[in-house]
Backbone:
């Protein structure tokens, strides 16, 4: 469980540091006249970003727990390391590309170069779909090589981890699809689209990071 | 950094006035309606779980007298009772119910930040409840694996509900976690983003603090239950061996090998222990507000109370294995976990001292919510102290599988939070319904419940010391158990049935109040917090009419010297306080 504790420690320390900053040296019992110009409380950022960051903390906890289980289960005698299909490298490259293109699209959205949004979003979508399809093909390759989910705990974890990651990507694709539809159909809501793309980009980078950690772990064990 | 407070960006919060009955009360995005929906659903399943416990008690008190209770459904009763009470009642009621109702009102917001997601959260929760209830009616019935669902027996033949019950249980939990996450994102974001002007973090009422930190715990801990549920579904459906060791089942080989049941226990309790505090922290927060309001005195050590909540929240992640002393894990772990368990008692004890000190020289009004709040302090101290016993490995080992543990956890996380639930419902009922309840009936309800639970659980500790084992359908003839143990069991059963029956008083009171209750004052308790200062009573959609409130002070300005009233609402500016003297001097 060390992995999980490490991840949670980081999340909780972030929260704690912020709380300390908010509460240090305050005297809650002192009343004051709060005028029109007072700025108390809310963070200077948007709610959807806070919502997303909270969700990312939840997802981090989820994957950290699977990794903890992986580490604990690996120590038992019947573990036979799985040799991962080479295809995963190609898939990883696609996911990295997807993140880069998404960042490029986001930059375009922020600086108002609207013409780049549609191609950027579509290329990102293709690359990400390519990643998911690639993962499915990798599963098929393993199946045909006789590496079934029941063959060994290492296999079971491989299918579980890659599956769980793909489901999270698919969830992101839903938001991506909505944003893309709005851009392509030309529903003009500049600020909303920009915000949506910004948040999607963060989510994509995060899932890339998760994938790199998972892939690294799978390769090294 | 210059930024615009969200109060000034009112348009960001999506709120559309609902028009029809359906958008107003069914597919409602109003946090108050969603709170009531959560509350009604949770109390409904809670009543099912109460009925199940009555059945268990009938068997224990009067063995073999009732033909409709056999060993299989006895285990199903245990399992479903535990699971429903902990997750579908208490978690849903405190966070989905009180969280939804109180956060926006106490923080001075119009609604949750994501109202649509909030509505979805309730309906997904309802789906999880429906899946759970369906499991009673599938072939083989619901699972009888115990609420901890330990493998291998949870998914091995011989355990009731091994075919369908366990599948539906795991599916229902997964759906519940999705629902909770949707709600949780809302609670966190609303507390962080949608507080009104002047409502600094350190001016928030402790109820909001308790709910906020409990939500953080829930969001980080529920994934552990999700992971273990998914992995167990793999083991059950696909025959992987995450948790299932090589075992022979009734002479046949089910094909498992090498899995680790202890791995499941680690994951389960990594969720399971924070879960205790997911239930307890909102209760701590609410009790603090009830005590302070009805004692007309500021809460003792507000900052300490906040930091105790935060500390308990953090520590709750590193005590989980104290549930596993007898699991066969490395015995050296026991030392570490016993130490952390005893450490967590420190912030908890600070809270208890502060509650008592809040009462000290207060102007105590023994109204119904106050009775329940003080009752909680009693039961929580009793349950907490036995927790200190059980936190020590050497004491836990002999007591672990006895009724001592049952008595302990029912006192600390059954009776105590339920007393707070009742106290809170009585306290906020006038705001929710606009009506008053019957005070006398409420007091009867309190005293019968409070004394009745002691009649149940004090003897149960004694049975535990005698070594009476828990989880047994029938005790049989054993040397170490005196005959009087059975008499005591019969007494406990009678008391339990009595307490269960007296809960009728609560429902009668609620129904009477709705039908015939007198209209309540907008602020019947003379409370300071914002929910009592709404322009409409009960508050309407959007909560605050045209203008959001502005907060000038903390939630505990009771009996401030030099002022005419013995309370100053949070939204009263020092310039406007009635008969205001020098506003800084009075503390």
Residues:
């Amino acid at each position: 469980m060390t992995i999980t504790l490490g991840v949670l420690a980081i999340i909780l320390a972030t929260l704690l540091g912020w709380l300390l900053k908010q509460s240090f040296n305050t005297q809650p019992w002192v009343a004051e006249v709060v005028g029109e110009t007072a700025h108390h409380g809310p963070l200077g950022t948007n709610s959807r970003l806070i919502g997303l960051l909270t969700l990312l903390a939840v997802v981090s906890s989820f994957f950290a727990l699977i990794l903890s289980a992986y580490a604990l289960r690996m120590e038992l005698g019947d573990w036979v390391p799985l040799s991962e299909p080479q295809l995963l490298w190609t898939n990883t490259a696609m996911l990295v590309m997807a993140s880069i293109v998404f960042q490029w699209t986001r930059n375009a959205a922020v600086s108002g170069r609207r013409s780049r949004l549609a191609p950027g979003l579509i290329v990102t979508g293709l690359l990400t779909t390519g990643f998911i399809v690639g993962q499915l093909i990798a599963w098929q390759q393993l199946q045909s090589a006789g590496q079934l989910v029941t063959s060994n705990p290492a296999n079971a974890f491989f299918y579980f981890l890659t599956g769980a990651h793909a489901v999270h990507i698919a969830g992101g694709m839903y938001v991506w699809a909505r944003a893309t539809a709005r851009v392509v159909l030309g529903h003009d809501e500049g600020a909303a689209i920009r915000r949506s793309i910004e948040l999607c980009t963060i989510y994509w980078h995060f899932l890339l990071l998760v994938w790199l950690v998972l892939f690294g772990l799978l390769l090294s064990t | 950094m210059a930024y615009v407070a969200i109060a000034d960006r009112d348009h960001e919060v999506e709120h559309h006035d609902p028009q029809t009955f359906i958008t107003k009360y069914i597919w409602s995005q109003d946090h108050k309606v969603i709170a009531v929906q959560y509350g009604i659903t949770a109390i409904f399943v809670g009543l099912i779980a109460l009925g199940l416990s009555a059945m268990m008690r009938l068997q224990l008190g009067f063995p073999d007298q009732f033909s409709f209770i056999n060993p299989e459904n006895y285990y199903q009763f245990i399992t479903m009772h535990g699971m429903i009470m902990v997750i579908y009642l208490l978690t849903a009621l405190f966070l989905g119910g009180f969280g939804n109702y109180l956060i926006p009102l106490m923080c001075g917001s119009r609604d949750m930040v994501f109202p649509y997601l909030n509505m979805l959260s309730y309906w997904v929760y309802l789906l999880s409840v429906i899946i759970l209830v369906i499991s009673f009616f599938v072939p083989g019935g619901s699972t009888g694996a115990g609420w901890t669902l330990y493998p291998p027996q949870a998914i091995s033949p011989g355990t009731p509900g091994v075919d369908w019950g366990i599948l539906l249980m795991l599916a229902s939990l997964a759906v519940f976690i999705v629902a909770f996450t949707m709600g949780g994102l809302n609670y966190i974001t609303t507390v962080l983003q949608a507080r009104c002007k002047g409502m600094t973090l350190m001016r928030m009422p402790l109820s909001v603090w308790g709910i906020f930190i409990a939500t953080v715990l829930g969001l980080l801990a529920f994934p552990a239950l999700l992971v273990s549920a998914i992995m167990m579904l793999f083991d059950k459906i696909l025959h992987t061996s995450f948790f299932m060791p090589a075992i022979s089942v009734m002479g046949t080989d089910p094909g498992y090998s090498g899995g680790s049941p202890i791995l499941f226990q680690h994951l389960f309790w990594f969720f399971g222990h924070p879960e205790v505090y997911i239930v307890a922290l909102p209760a701590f927060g609410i009790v603090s507000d009830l005590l302070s309001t009805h004692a007309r005195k500021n809460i003792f050590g507000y900052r300490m109370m906040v930091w105790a909540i935060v500390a308990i929240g953090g520590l709750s992640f590193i005590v989980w294995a104290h549930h596993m002393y007898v699991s066969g894990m490395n015995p050296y772990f026991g030392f570490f976990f016993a130490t952390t368990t005893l450490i967590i008692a420190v912030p908890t004890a600070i809270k208890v001292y502060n509650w008592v000190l809040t009462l000290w020289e207060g102007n105590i009004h023994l109204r119904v919510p106050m009775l329940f709040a003080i009752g909680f302090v009693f039961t929580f101290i009793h349950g907490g102290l036995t927790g200190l016993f059980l936190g020590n490995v050497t004491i836990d080992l002999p007591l672990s599988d006895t009724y001592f543990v049952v008595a302990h956890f029912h006192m600390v996380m059954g009776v105590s939070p339920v007393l707070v639930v009742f106290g809170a419902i009585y306290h906020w009922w006038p705001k929710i319904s606009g009506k008053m309840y019957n005070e006398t009936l409420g007091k009867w309800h309190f005293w019968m419940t409070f004394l009745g639970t002691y009649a149940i659980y004090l003897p149960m500790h004694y049975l535990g010391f005698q070594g009476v084992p828990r989880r047994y359908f029938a005790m049989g003839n054993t040397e170490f158990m005196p005959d009087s143990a059975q008499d005591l069991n019969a007494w406990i059963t009678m008391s339990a049935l009595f307490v269960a029956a007296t809960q009728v008083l609560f429902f009668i009171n609620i129904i009477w109040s709705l039908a015939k209750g007198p209209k309540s004052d907008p602020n019947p308790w003379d409370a300071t917090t914002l929910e009592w200062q709404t322009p409409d009573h009960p508050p309407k959609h959007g909560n605050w009419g045209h203008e959001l409130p502005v907060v000038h002070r903390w939630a505990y300005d009771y009996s401030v010297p030099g002022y005419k009233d013995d309370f100053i609402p949070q939204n009263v500016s020092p310039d406007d306080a009635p008969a205001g003297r020098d506003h800084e001097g009075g503390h």
In short: Helices of chain A lie at 2-23, 47-74, 87-110, 117-144, 153-184, 190-220. The radius of gyration of chain A is 21 Å.
